[in-house]
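Need residues for this backbone.
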């Protein structure tokens, strides 16, 4: 083997330097004795993919018990990340879910989630519409709305988290290479060939964590992941009245003819000096054919839907946006699976050498998904139950729906 060829050989190549890719690199490199490379198409901490914006919702509660169990596993791993980097990342402002308690959404269902919290002994407080209005200042909520506050939930500091996994993966010796785009991933029974714009690498294992672009590099396999891609608005508003104690909230409402009618919002970020607040819709409409079709600017109608909701129900907020941006959401078409997480052995020959972690509301799992990907890539197995998310050919999810 030529010197240059051996230099391009790694035990593990991670494709995509977002939070999940960097967390994987950290979890793999910290074991020691492994050559780990991360390839990122743009710069690290870019705002062009699924991780744009300053905050994400942290929650323990899930309707699905197996996923709920995973948030409980993720919590001590977040604490470890915080203590290793000396920065608070989870801010427990509370997680308030309210609305129509029976409506089924991609986020879950209120009544089923309350039952799951009972079963798992996770504390929560049940609230009526009147109590939610009195306590948190909402107005005009339909009187049948109900919900709960789960106090351990709240907001995750996105940029702090990416900085943490970037720093730790580098500290443990992972090679982080920005501005190098992967064009193709070709597995075989002995390993994986990774072709970029610049060169060709060889790895024993590959972890694919390139978010909305996953199907691009799997082109030779026939774009096997069945996903919907949506460019969702992030809407920033000024507060008329800043009051401490407001939680993250998610409004579960019956869909309209036009969209899924779901909205969420954060209080001001505790780690920021700004009093601004961020809101967004979770509408699965106007799917993009390709991630590169994202415009970076939201369509007017969903923004209007958000600001109308704020004008009707949030008297403490000025409904005129002060800033608009977008985030690229990539969701499995089969909502029951929630994520694609597992090796690609069922999809292509040699696919057992490629671990995939893409799609879904995954930020809350950053340290755990990194550990699971490192386990799968380096040990071929993991102790966590991720069977629901296993990669199966499109249309054969194996999930009871
Ligand atoms: C509006 C919105 C709200 C959300 N809310 C929540 C929430 O409240 N809670 C939660 O847990 N999750 C939430 N999510 C989901 C969460 O943000 C994502 O799951 C998570 O940020 C994805 O991280 P990632 O590392 O997998 O992917 P990304 O951050 O998308 O990173 C992928 C990286 O791969 C790079 N890349 C792409 N193609 C290539 C290539 N060919 N070669 C090399 N590199 C490549 C990209 O440049 C990018 O940096 C939300 C998402 C959106 C859009």
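Answer:
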């Amino acid at each position: 083997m030529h010197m240059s060829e051996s230099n391009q050989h790694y035990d593990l190549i991670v494709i995509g330097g977002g939070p999940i890719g960097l967390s994987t690199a950290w979890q793999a490199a910290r074991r020691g004795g492994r050559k780990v490379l991360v390839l990122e198409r743009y710069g690290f901490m870019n705002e062009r993919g699924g991780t744009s914006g300053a905050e994400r919702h942290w929650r323990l509660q899930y309707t699905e018990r197996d996923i709920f169990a995973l948030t409980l596993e993720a919590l001590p791993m977040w604490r470890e990340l915080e203590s290793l980097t000396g920065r608070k990342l989870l801010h427990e402002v509370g997680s308030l879910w309210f609305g129509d308690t029976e409506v089924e959404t991609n986020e879950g269902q209120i009544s089923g989630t309350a039952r799951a919290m009972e079963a798992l002994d996770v504390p929560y407080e049940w609230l009526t519409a009147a109590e939610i209005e009195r306590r948190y200042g909402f107005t005009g909520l339909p009187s049948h709305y109900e919900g709960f506050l789960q106090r351990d939930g709240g907001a995750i500091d996105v940029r702090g988290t990416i900085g943490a996994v970037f720093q730790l993966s580098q500290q443990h010796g992972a090679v982080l290479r920005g501005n190098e785009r992967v064009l193709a991933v070709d597995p075989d029974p002995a390993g994986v060939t990774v072709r970029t714009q610049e060169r060709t690498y060889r790895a024993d294992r590959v972890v694919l964590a390139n978010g909305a672009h996953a199907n691009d590099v799997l082109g030779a396999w026939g774009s096997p992941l069945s996903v919907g891609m949506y460019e969702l608005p992030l809407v920033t508003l000024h507060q008329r009245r800043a009051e401490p104690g407001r939680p993250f909230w998610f409004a579960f409402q019956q869909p309209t003819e036009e969209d899924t009618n779901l909205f969420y919002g954060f209080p001001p970020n505790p780690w920021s000096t700004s009093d601004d607040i961020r809101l967004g819709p979770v509408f699965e409409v106007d799917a993009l054919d390709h991630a590169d079709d994202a415009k970076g600017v939201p369509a007017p109608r969903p923004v209007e839907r958000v600001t109308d909701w704020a004008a009707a129900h949030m008297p403490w907020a000025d409904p005129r946006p002060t800033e608009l941006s977008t985030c690229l959401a990539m969701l499995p078409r089969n909502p029951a699976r929630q994520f694609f997480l597992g090796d690609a052995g069922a999809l292509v020959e040699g696919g057992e050498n490629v671990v995939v972690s893409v799609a879904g509301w995954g930020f809350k799992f950053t340290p755990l998904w990194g550990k699971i990907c490192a386990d799968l890539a380096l040990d071929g197995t993991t102790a966590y139950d991720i069977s629901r998310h296993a990669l199966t050919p499109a249309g054969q999810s194996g999930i009871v729906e």
